[in-house]
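Sequence in, structure out.
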Amino acid sequence: MNSQLIKNSLLENGTLTTSSEIQKDQLHSNPALNYVLCDSDSSRQQYQQQMTLAAQGVERWLSDPALYSGLDVASLARAINLNIADEPQPAEQVIEQALRQYLDHSLKVHHPHCVAHLHCPTLIISQTAELLMNASNQSMDSWDQSPAATVIEMKLIAWLRELVGYSTGDAGVFTSGGTQSNLMGLLLARDAVVQRVWGIDVRTQGLPPDAQRLRVICSSQAHFSVQKNMALLGLGYQSVVAIACNAQGQMDTQVLQQTIAQLQQDGCVIAAIVATAGTTDIGAIDPLQPIADIAKQQAIWLHVDAAWGGALLLSNQYRHWLNGMAQADSITLDFHKHFFQPISCGAFLLKDPAHFGLMHYQADYLNSAFDEMQGVPNLVARSLQTTRRFDALKLWMSLQHLGTAQFGALVERGIELAQQVAAKIADDAQLQLMIEPQLSSVLFRLNNPTDVLSLTPANLDLLNQQVADHLLYSGQANVGVTRFQGQTCLKLTILNPVITLPDLEKLLVLVKQQAAVLIQKIKTLETVSQRESLS
């Protein structure tokens, strides 16, 4: 007799009490039923009421035109009081406090002048997915904690593998984002080369005594997580060789070949080459096919960090920029960038599933040998995390709702808009375009206002920084600030698909207006100083 028949039989005989009956009896004696999401009438009612209040608060917040409240760090610290008390507070009061102290002072990432970072507005359907994910609270470490979620994630990983050009399979896992995915790629690359060169299993034996010979090669524009992760892996920043880029900010393959030869001559062991498809500041895509050919020739693990540029997989017009990525041993994808997903949502793809064995650990209560023999998929074996959210749901629902063609069109629009605003900047005598955009990031800076006031290079850098600061603290705009070719620059990262060219033209006007205000203050101070020195 199967379990459902047994349950029905017990119910008919009156020997099994339903959870709802138990909870009705305990409602008055068990206050947890008023707080925990479950099938009690009280729980369901409170869930509806609290979600409605929160949604209404979000609607009010969305309708407020200010990008940010404008409070600086010290002012915001004074304004926020957590008010954690011994006695319970009504949910309505708690929600109102969260709306007032958190949401009212949060950055509006959907605002057309919020362009500082790879920080996207989110799709409505992905917000709906978050509701389902949070309500069910599945944990992706073991099958018995996430049965349907496990299958959906594995099937979506298989779809992503096919999209990048990998063979059929499901070797991959969802991650918290690019930094974790890059860590997994570097971890497996390190352990694979240590096993091949030294014959050591790092899991059980640790690193060899001369592990400091290990090196990883990336471009000077690669994400900082390469250095950070190599430090976490015990090899330090010194293990990362960041080589020169060409004029477009891409890895120079001639320098790559020279670097490999020199490192080998010096007795170093190269664990991996990290190629980038979409650098953070300028959106540069390294020449993936030539790099893949070099990696194959030298038998070096190739990891492609496509956290940003991976969105081009859905573009008919620009997908060819990723040619060669399918030859990588591992790939990073991020969906909370140009896939418009709520944070966090990323994926790590592994070409050869056997390499997951390099990080395999068996915990009897999660991924037992019995489960493995029965073919039960416990995804903890593929992840650096144990408890993990079901982030695959929001990407799956988004792909279904928009369709891949619409997704690709949104990505293409950002690239084309970046090209248009770059042309406007290039034609403006007050601004300097630092480099032609490649994805949808535009680097520029204010020129020295020599007709009004000649600034030193350091003061011109400071002017650009302070313009961005003043725009944020006035609640008008969030413009990125970075360094490029030894100069402080402003950055527009155009992910938001609702931004228009007039929005960006207005932003450039704000930048120039704020610069004029600051320049006038400097002139006034100089005039006062000159008068004081003469008196």
